[in-house]
Amino acid sequence: MTDMTHPIPRNSRLEQLRHRFLRTPLDIAVTAASLLLALFVGWKLLDWAVLSAVWTSPDGLSQPCRDASGACWAVIEARWRLILFGVFPYAEQWRAAVATAALILAGGLSCLPLFWSVIRQALLWIAAFALFMVFMHGGVFGLSSVPPAQWGGLALTLFFFVAVVIVGMPLSICLALMRRSDLPVIRGTAIILIDGVRALPLVTILFTAALILPFVLPGWLQGDKIWRVIAGFALFFAAYQAEVLRSGIQALPRGQEEAAKALGMGYFHRITRVVLPQAFRNALPPTINQLVITLMETSLIVIIGFFDLMASGNAAYGTGEWSFAYVEVYAFIALIYGVFVFSLSRYGRYLERRLRVGSS
Amino acid sequence: MPSLLRNRKFRSATLQVLFVLAVMVILVSAVTTAQDTIATNGMRSGFGFLDRTTGVNIGFSVLQYDANSTYRQLILVGLVNTAILGILGIILAHIVGLVVAAMAISRNGSLNLVAQGYVELFRSIPLILQALFWYALVTHLPAPRNAHEPLPGLFLTGRGIFMPGLSVTGEAVALVLGCLLLGAIAFAWFMIDHRFRRISDSRRRTGRLVIIGLTLLACALALNAGRVPDMPLISVPELRGLNFRGGFALPPELTALAIAIAIYGGAYVSEILRAGFQAVPRGQLEAAAALGLRPLHVFTRVHLPMAFRAVLPTLTNQCVWMFKATTLGIAVGYSDLFYVISISITQSGQTLELIGILMLGFLVMNNMISFLLNRLNKAIALKGT
Amino acid sequence: MTDTAIQIRRMNKFYGSFQVLRDINLTVRKGERIVICGPSGSGKSTLIRCINRLEDHQDGSINVLGTELNEDVGSIDLIRREVGMVFQHFNLFPHLTVLENCTLAPMLVRRFSRAEAERVAREYLERVRIPEKADAFPSELSGGQQQRVAIARALCMRPEILLFDEPTSALDPEMINEVLDVMRELAMDGMTMVCVTHEMGFARQVADRVIFMSNGEIVEENTPEAFFTNPRNERTRGFLAKILAH
Q1: Is C115 left (phi over 0), alpha (psi -120 to 50) or beta?
Q2: Which of A12, B63, B120, C140 lies at a CB distance of 3.0 to 4.6 Å from C136, suitable for a disulfide?
Q3: Of the candidates A262, A264, A277, which has its C-beta nearest C95's C-beta?
Q4: Range of the domain at A40
Q5: Domain shared by B190 and B85, yes or no
């Protein structure tokens, strides 16, 4: 450090702060202005969201809110079950709650190092999915049957996300491997499929899955609309994730696969034991990013008529009674998405740090 | 025979033939099933329906359109609306992104924090939620009678934003926008392409003037052709009854979507730009400063051009993405391509053909963006790297 | 036939229209130690990579341990099982520990039980003198240690033949000897070895024959004494003059 004009004493945190925030008079002015703005916005927000807010409305009516100047959280109190579970039969909503909790729990468990193996992840998610279907769909163990058309809210959103990733992840591995195949026909097909899907907006894919597949699939293969849409969404996810994985594979030195070949390992073992474990590790940050984007994109299923978190939010303030409280409802929904997105990206950062140890 | 089965070349040939056969079986069965379905439901396939009248009204259209127009016109309206929203969104998002990125890389800690907070906040809320929020906010603006008037002639209302405008037809407006866009592309190409760097300064100046002149001339001609007869050229919005008449109206759907794409896309653009700025070696900036360039010039002449080169491929993907994001116009009722296709499907039942048009439209538009930006990328790429 | 390990006859190899190997004829007996040297780009690495089919040849025949190398999938599997290879850049699997690197292929390819594979692995790690690093990851080892692990990994497959592709070129000078020592011991145990290397001291001590390649051809094939003291070919002399000058 021979730069005498701006000496930065490394040992003093206070000095560092001063250097970052108060170096020149202009900096001082900017910092002061930002601080004032932050205080002003913060105070307004605090006042609106907490101090002047109406938290509860005894008889479920909106009158107390109309008289107050702050946020009307009473709308959440009145409508939270609609937002979380949509039009699921009211008396059975505990089942939707259990099913949602199963998915969230599985998500949490799959983050633990204990579950970091393909087989354990597969078992965990199959179990979670089965549990979800038993409680959500019912029709077994004396639970009444609730068809997917009646699913909604957060439960539907999470179900969509999990189903898309469970179907899409293996598909993306297939596509990525096909794309680097030595066989020109297979490689060409993968390129057309991946680039074609990536050039189209998600909603057109979902629309196609909902409207075109009934035309071209024989009756026995059509299934409920929700499954077709999940299939289309999974293809979309897989096209993007395949490119993420491909870049992870390309980052491997060529010698890795050669060494495996020289040891006599066949294609399947080379891919599953040498290439993919390293490719996933390389591709971890963009994979987490892709998961975050996919979670947020599930909100687009509202466009093709599913009653997901987004749609149930719209319905929650859509009636005349609460139509003024749209900001509160949207804030609540944004908060729900935000919690999931935030924890996912935090986990991604933790993984990045952890995996850097133990590999070059 | 066993030795043939174990032959590597035979195996890969067989595998490929089987793969092609499987794909063909799937495609053929899909087509025959589709024909069966169409036949049993008594539908007609083909593109003859494009010339039928639609019988529906839509909200916002730059082009002449009413319920008596044909499907062909309706789809054209959707295409133009998608292009308007897409280009508006891309431009606004880049402005927002540049500002936020500049804050993120500034040496001032508080500006860093503001930029960081902005990116974290708006990237973790789904775009459609933001669009719906802005739409709710814009439509909850006061009714025209109690409109806000922040500037004389500019009215903010729940029915849209009204401002003084030229009294010309929508087609002329679309044409003018097209001319401006072409002019801008030509200008950028002329300024950036290495071929034109070698000619003398005076000829470069003439070239620039010619491009600007031609663009303005084309705009003026388009405006003149599209004059609405018996009206003053500039019309100012006036309150008549329950709504404003005259002037230029920015509908709430377009406003909300443009804001949403600008803010959400801007967060992503700023992250891309920030990475680009940070990828420029410090030595380059120090060299520029050592030559006596002032900080502003270091930024505009050295830092920005080098960062821009580094991130253009990523920005291209982001632009294509933002163009695709226009499809959520349907959530707020903006008549973009996806919206008009979906109401056409409900009206005419020609699902297969219409979705074909939709996909083709997006493939063409997105490839056009990629093509233009890739050309730009090639033109500005540093030679010898 | 039984004591022939590798027999290459009139072999040619092309990359597109560019010929990398011309009319190669080479016979290696079991237990023989061959050192291949030559200027870079002379095709010596390509030659030994043809022996375990990391590269295809277009013309002529390669016979390894009585098995003809052709498009037959079974023969490729068989030969790769019996021929071990040590690479210039080690190519250890970074996501596995040293022990797992050594047990992976024996368990998957040779169908050893885990216990058996680990016993064999520890035995060979002992022989390359790093048993204590069994649970370390490759990134925690020095270059010389990594290369010794790579040799142990190849040995764990119990190969008949070991190929070395410039095993010391990527190492810092002070680590070269620890790897050469291991290779010398292997040679003394009677392992069939084909080494591409520039370590002329190693060649002189260990090799039964030294082969000099240039421009894709085998230019000279000789005993080490004759090769170093009295090379027959002009190009060999030029090469030796350059490499032994310092």
Answers
A1: alpha
A2: C140
A3: A277
A4: 10-48
A5: no
Question: pTM of the prediction?
Answer: 0.86
Residue of B nearest to C76 (CA): B8
Cβ atoms of A115 and A348 within 8 Å: the answer is: no
Domain assignment present for residue A66? The answer is: no
Assigned domain for B267 exists: yes
B259 C-beta neighbours (distance < 10 Å), count: 20
Residue C241 pLDDT more than 90?
A: no
Contact B10 C71 (CB under 8 A): yes
Number of domains into which chain A is organized? 2
Q: Is residue A58 part of a domain?
A: no
Which tokens in the block code for residue B175? Answer: 């044409």
* Residue among B168, B151, B149 at smallest CA distance from B64: B168
Tokens of C214: 């240039």
The residues near A285 (Cβ < 8 Å, ≥ 6 apart) are A348, A352
**Alpha-carbon span A249 to A245, nearest angstrom:** 6
A97 falls within a domain: no
Nearest-CA distance A81 → chain B (Å)? 19
Per-residue pLDDT tens digits for B312-369: 888 888 888 888 888 888 888 888 888 888 888 888 877 888 888 888 988 888 888 8
**Residue A1: is its pLDDT beyond 60?**
no
Helix/strand/coil for C211 = strand
Cβ distance C139 to C94 under 8 Å?
yes
Neighbours of A195 (CB within 10 A): 13
For residues B147 and B179, membership in a common domain is answered with no
Supply the DSSP symbol for C8.
Answer: E
DSSP calls for A136-198: HH--STTPPP--GGG--HHHHHHHHHHHHHHHHHHHHHHHHHHHT-S-HHHHHHHHHHHHHHH
Cα C92 from Cα C97, distance rounded (Å): 9
Instruction: Output the CA torsion sign for B180, B186, B191, B193.
Output: positive
Q: Where are the beta strands (DSSP E) in chain A?
A: none
Dihedral through CA A341, CA A344, CA A345, CA A349, nearest 10?
Answer: 170
**Residue in chain C lying closest to B3 (CA):** C72
Query: Band of the pLDDT at C93, cuts 50, 70, 90?
Result: very high
Residues of B in contact with C74 (CB under 8 A): 6
Question: Domain for residue B48, yes or no?
Answer: no
Residue A180 forms part of a structural domain: yes
pLDDT digits (tens, 9 = 90+) for B88-146: 899 999 999 999 998 888 888 888 888 999 998 898 888 988 998 888 888 887 777 77
B15-47 per-position pLDDT tens digit = 889 999 999 998 888 888 888 877 777 677 777
